[in-house]
Here is the input.
Amino acid sequence: MGSPWAFAVSILIIIGWAATGKYFHYSDTWQLVINTGTSVVTFLMVFLIQHTQNRDTKVTQIKLDELIRAVERARTELIQMETLGDEDLVEVEKELGKEREKAIRQRVKRKTTGSSESNKEGEQK
Here is the structure.
């Protein structure tokens, strides 16, 4: 659908419709034809786009699941998390938030410990 050919066909349809305007005296019916056609195409495209997005999301989830399986330290219970209920997702999010805060505290602690050790070494020299 998103190919150059589809775009070219769309342009040809618009040009054909515009060219017939004089023949139909630019009537309300003539305008209604293009309005109805574009409405129908737009309506159908919504479903096509939704299907494509769902497929892309599924592929992304499969790839992420494979990465989780491949990484030795990864928690395999996170595989297919998208099937969890909302309450379970909130719990996992809270748990991961706690782990993130712990990692940040450890990193800050290492930086401050590392910088104070550097200062001590500098003073000793």
